[in-house]
Amino acid sequence: MDNKKSSFKKRVLESLKDIPYGKVTTYSSIAIGLSNKNLARAVGNALHSNNDPNKYPCYKVVNSKGCLSKHYAFNGVEGQKKLLKEEGIEVKDYKVDLKKYKI
DNA sequence: TAGATGACTCACA
DNA sequence: ATGTGAGCCATCT
Predict the structure, then answer these.
(1) A40 touches strand C (CB under 7 A)
(2) Model confidence, pTM
(3) Active-site residue among A31, A58, A73, A89?
(4) Is the CB of A51 under 7 A from strand C?
(5) Going residue by residue through chain A (103 aa), what tens digit of pLDDT does each one get?
(6) CA distance A71 to A76
(7) Which of A6, A27, A70, A88 could pair with A40 in a Cys bridge, judged by C-beta atoms 3.0 to 4.6 Å apart?
């Protein structure tokens, strides 16, 4: 858990910033973008370790089903859902339509 | 150093 | 369609 080294986490977080407005992404997509999709789990851990939800739009990351993360940082799924709606993303039962919003 | 954990995904029944 | 099992990775204990 050290700050300046763990490049993996940082890389994932940086990837979040690459998400355009009004769009969402999935763990596997990020994992693939980095190297291989098997990293999906590690990506989840990276977001979990994210200490700056304000800086990194971790709320724009959902799983393959399009479900929002139940363990979202501070505001919980409610805040996450709200943020997504703020970007024009329609949220149904804490789920988003990947067909339309996934990159 | 080795074992367990988790914000995951896929395949199969 | 829903439920269970196995595989993968990085980090934690």
Answers:
(1) yes
(2) 0.91
(3) A58
(4) no
(5) 544 556 899 999 999 999 999 999 999 999 999 989 999 999 999 999 998 888 999 999 999 999 999 889 888 899 999 999 999 999 999 999 999 999 9
(6) 7
(7) A27
